[in-house]
Design brief:
Elements (H helix, E strand, L loop, with lengths): L1 H12 L3 H28 L4 E4 L2 E15 L2 E4 L6 E4 L6 E2 L4 E6 L2 H24 L9 H20 L3 H21 L6 H13 L10 E4 L4 E4 L19 H11 L9 E4 L4 E8 L11 E6 L5 E8 L9 E8 L4 H4 L3 E16 L5 E3 L2 E8 L2 E6 L2 E4 L4 E3 L14 E5 L11
Antiparallel strand pairs: 1-20, 2-10, 2-14, 3-9, 4-6, 5-8, 6-7, 8-9, 10-13, 11-12, 11-14, 12-13, 14-19, 15-16, 16-17, 18-19
Helix pairs in contact: 3-6, 4-5
Length: 421
């Protein structure tokens, strides 16, 4: 056998150059034929693909980078001491209200905070001892509440919202205690109260009380985030900012970093987003219109009023679009430079692949697969996106798309009444 293989190898080596070239050409021709055949087979045997008809809403959007300008004032810490905020991030504060407690040392601040927590815990168990379980009468309901609380705690922890984490932790402790009472487990409240009282007595509260307070000099919303740009922009004269000025402001603000200040007060509920836009992009908008603004990278959508920048001089290529909102919370209070999407138009209908749309007898529509039978559905295209279209949908339209139709987006020789098996 080995001898025969050697003989064949010798014969191949004896082939002339032209013979070898001919063999190579034949080999490549075979490859081409195989490729063409496979392509023809795939065209002639198109696998059916469908997409479920669901209601979707899409938007025409203007993308821009916005600078957030607020009426905000720095809250400076007292030097040489430890300042502990008395208000939560995003909490409303009245003029003269307490913003922070001032302690002589970090140890005193920690001891004071521990004492207050023990005091709250003592009041909680004293109340629990004197009351019934409450309205919850079955373990399943209570367990469902506990599970929801755990999920909320996890989400708050992922968002690094430590105040909410603390609140959810306290709620969990309450529900676990109630569960023990509900299933008949004895809780020695007297022993718990004695232990807490002992821990409180071990803290010399008089030696660790605050030595001073920081008060608000105006009403507003407190934020613990500062970036050093709180006074960099003229809040009262934002309409005087030109496109060139705004582009410079945005470029500089991108390098802003948190400062060591205790926080800031946002003293006006109205605030602005300023963005440089092309005049043609906002041609259909008017000053005074309300628009929804989506913050890219988040699920936050803010409704804003257009203050100026929509009605521009025809000779201007760009304008500063000024958007005003009165929504305010801790997240908004920490915004400075944001990538935004200004929603100029809204379309609601059935969102499908453009491949699903056909023309039959001069009208547009799609084919739906109903119990293995192809059925024609009339539909007008409301909007064409990059890789999708939005089709009109109405429950009153005869012969139109029905919700949850299996719309055919890929198929061979489609026609009304065809049976797919």
């Amino acid at each position: 056998m080995a001898k025969e293989q050697k003989e064949k190898a010798k014969k191949l080596n004896k082939l002339t150059a032209s013979q070898k070239q001919s063999l190579a050409i034949i080999f490549f021709l075979v490859l081409i034929v195989v490729y063409i055949g496979s392509q023809c087979y795939s065209v002639m045997n198109v696998r059916l693909q469908t997409q479920t008809a669901l209601i979707s809403t899409v938007y025409e959007e203007v993308e821009a980078t916005a600078l957030v300008v607020r009426d905000e004032h720095i809250v400076s810490p007292q030097g040489g001491s430890v300042n502990v905020p008395s208000v939560s991030n995003g909490e409303k504060v009245k003029n003269g209200g307490e913003l922070a407690k001032v302690f002589g040392s970090a140890e005193n601040a920690a001891a004071y905070a521990e004492y207050l927590e023990l005091e709250q815990e003592l009041a909680y168990y004293a109340q629990m001892e004197s009351q019934a379980v409450g309205q919850v009468t079955d373990v399943e309901s209570l367990d469902a509440d506990i599970l929801q609380n755990v999920n909320s705690y996890i989400r708050a922890n992922a968002a690094m919202d430590f105040q909410q984490c603390k609140d959810y932790s306290s709620q969990l402790n309450d529900k676990f205690t109630r569960r023990q009472m509900l299933i008949g487990q004895d809780i020695d409240f007297a022993s718990i109260v004695t232990e807490i009282t002992s821990e409180m007595d071990a803290i010399n509260i008089n030696s660790c009380k605050p030595v001073g307070y920081i008060s608000a000099d105006a009403s507003g919303i407190f934020s613990d985030y500062t970036d050093g740009l709180e006074q960099a922009y003229d809040f009262k004269n934002v309409e005087e900012i030109t496109p060139e000025m705004l582009e410079g402001y945005i470029e500089g603000a991108k390098d802003a970093v948190p400062t060591d200040d205790m926080g800031k007060l946002v003293t006006s509920f109205d605030w602005y987003m300023l963005a440089v836009v092309e005049r043609e992009d906002v041609a259909e908008l008017k000053n005074g219109d309300k628009v929804d603004v989506a913050i890219k990278g988040t699920d936050r959508v803010i409704t804003c009023k257009i203050v100026s920048g929509a009605d521009t001089d025809l000779s201007a290529d760009k304008s500063v679009l000024i958007l005003k909102s009165s929504d305010m919370n801790s997240d908004i209070a920490s915004m400075r430079v944001e990538n935004i999407q200004i929603r100029t138009k809204e379309y609601t209908g059935i969102k499908v692949s453009p491949n699903a749309v056909h023309i039959k007898d001069g009208e547009k529509g799609v084919y739906a697969l109903v119990s293995s039978v192809v059925e024609w559905r009339k539909a007008d295209v409301l909007y064409t996106g990059k890789d999708y279209v939005v089709l009109n949908y109405s429950t009153e339209e005869s012969g139109g798309i029905k919700l949850y139709d299996e719309i055919i987006i890929k198929g061979k020789e489609l026609h009304d009444g065809k049976v797919y098996t």
